[in-house]
Amino acid sequence: MPPTDLARAIAAGDVDALPTDALATWATSQRWFSSKLRDVREFNVLDVVVLSTQDPVVAIVIAEARFGAGTHDVYQMPIAVRPASSGWDAGVICASADHVVYDALLDEVADAVLARHLADSTEIDRPGGRVSFHGEPGAQTPGAGTEARTMGAEQSNTSVVIDDRLVLKVFRRIQPGVNPELEMLRFLAAHDFPNIAAMVGWYGYSGELMDATLGVLQPYIEGARDGWELALDALVAGDERFLDGLGALGSVTGRMHAVLASDAGDPNFAPEEPTDEMLSLLSATLDERIERVFDELPGEVSAIGPIAGRGEEVRDHLQSLSHVGVGGRLIRIHGDYHLGQTVRREDAWVVLDFEGEPGTPLVERRRKRSPLRDVAGMLRSFAYAASGVELLRGATAPAGWEQEARERFLDGYLAEVDHAILPAGTNAIAKLLAIFELERAIYELRYELNNRPGWVGIPVACITRLLEAMPA
Q1: Ramachandran region of residue 226, left (φ > 0), alpha (ψ -120 to 50) or beta?
Q2: Alpha helices, H only, 140-203
Q3: Is 302 exposed, middle or buried (0-12, 13-18, 19+ CB in 10 A)?
Q4: What is the pTM of this model?
Q5: Choices 3.90.1200.10, 3.40.50.2000, 3.40.109.10, 3.40.50.2300: CATH for 225-469
Q6: 57, 207, 210, 275 — which has fewest CB within 10 A?
Q7: Measured distance CA(415)–CA(460) in Å, rounded
Q8: CB within 8 A of 282, min separation 6: which ones?
Q9: For the segment 195-254, what is each residue's pLDDT rounded down to a tens digit?
């Protein structure tokens, strides 16, 4: 089919030819668009990088959504253009009698274009920037005749399975700097930590606009089961083998933290002693988060009754962190650790998604923190499984299941972690864990109020329990 006028314009790198209004409408409706609660004042295309001038034309659009008070987010949107006569109807951004513009990641032909650039380590120059594709030394990148398909449901990123042996994670919201996923996978692989899907390749943008990681390529772990789904299935079936495996997950987590704390010669990963300045910054951040959440508690949601009006009490408990210190040492951590960030194949656990919380500024995600933050995240995930199985599957968790899960995981963790990075003594560890669980529950409360009001009772139960049983 001959190229359309729009396809020719995009193939020539004409930013002005892009359907900006349609891109804005489409992008703001996607699950990966992270600012649905803010009004978009402007939506601008910043650059377009052409990956293929064939049919379909494939390009990476870099666009920004601007909000009030001068804030903005930048997004990566791979798009493709086919003639209208092609009949293409998936992920359509806009269409006319002449052409259809759509999400390129839903098209295996366009996905294969990305894969071939990774295989060839291509560099594509633009007047203001460059997109570079890289394969890791010794890694087997995609070959000729590549097949590709989008993997699973949309999250904050989009993953593409290539040749049923590789996964390309495309970061949708991009920020200046090295994405922690790239940095952490490299470090863990270099230090022989086996429980990861080690990086095969990556691609990034560099130029006047920003330097940013756009995506990473990893092995596809065929036959692996997601930890969250495993937990729900086990609860429905009454299968205790999942609990038996949590000691191993704790051991993997402990070894991961020990490895992340093992290289004093790398300034990006060397363990650090907590300073007064760090503690003050943490306290200020927590104060702001608590105030924002509790000031906005809606009176019409009955599930919040047990914590209504208790914002000051929560603040007092979290402020105790500044009196005991964080204990141990600060290291690089996973940053968004829960059952959904793990998979299990046969008897081996694999940890995934080292980018941290996608909605958090990248500089925050790369900050060194107590490893017990990751532990608290996983403990909260057990609470979500115990309650969520009723909401999602109509089943009831056995009495004591959550506590048993916690104990098995913690036993495995404490048996493997380097205790030099933890507070001294079980009481100090318990207190710090409780504080981090409370902090995590505040984050969960805000998320559920904004996205899943029916789940609000889960973080409310945690906040109530921790306020009543905070270790002395």
Answers
A1: beta
A2: 180-190
A3: exposed
A4: 0.89
A5: 3.90.1200.10
A6: 275
A7: 31
A8: 321, 322, 326
A9: 999 999 999 999 888 999 999 999 998 888 999 999 999 999 999 999 999 999 999 999
